[in-house]
Design brief:
81 residues, 3-stranded mixed beta sheet, 2 helices, 14% strand, globular
């Protein structure tokens, strides 16, 4: 795990929510973009996580996307919180 205390990586990737996840394959291609939970505080099975795992194991060229839940990383003026 890497800490992004100053929000540099979030800004580089365009992440706006704390739950935003990007998964890349070994070749550096984006394979999944989105959240990994069904909602804030969700426990148990999750379609988003299943979709992320599927694109990494299916060998296809598709990219999956999922809804993102979490706290905003930037405020409405687009400045770091």
């Amino acid at each position: 795990m890497v800490s992004d205390r100053d929000g540099v990586e979030a800004k580089n990737f365009g992440a706006l929510t704390s739950g935003q996840t990007y998964i890349f394959d070994k070749q550096g291609s984006l394979r999944y973009e989105g959240g990994l939970t069904e909602g804030r505080g969700h426990e148990g099975g999750c379609r988003n996580l299943e979709a992320a795992m599927k694109v990494l194991t299916d060998g296809g060229a598709s990219t999956a996307f999922g809804a993102v839940y979490g706290c905003p990383i930037v405020d409405t003026r687009n400045t770091q919180l």
